[in-house]
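Worked example 2:
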Amino acid sequence: LDALATQAGMPASAVLVAATRVGARAAGQADAMGSIEAGKLANLVVLARNPLDDLANLRSVVFTVKRGRRFERRALVPLTPGDITDF
């Protein structure tokens, strides 16, 4: 996303649309995700800071909602190199 803003010169609002609505449409999932609407999957993040001010604010995740279930950021346990295996 950073490259879209810094290298392609897209404004933050266009980068966010590309990452959400356009991404869902490209994946053939626009009817189920990509925007917040009745009947769509409740997949979203709540941020502490506004990403329109600075895309780096996308790192200010407070919690994530995946299919309507809330996941607190502070409960995240990051993967370690030992957690990742080759298939």
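Residues 55 and 63 are 17 Å apart (CA to CA). Residues 12-26 form the longest helix (15 residues).
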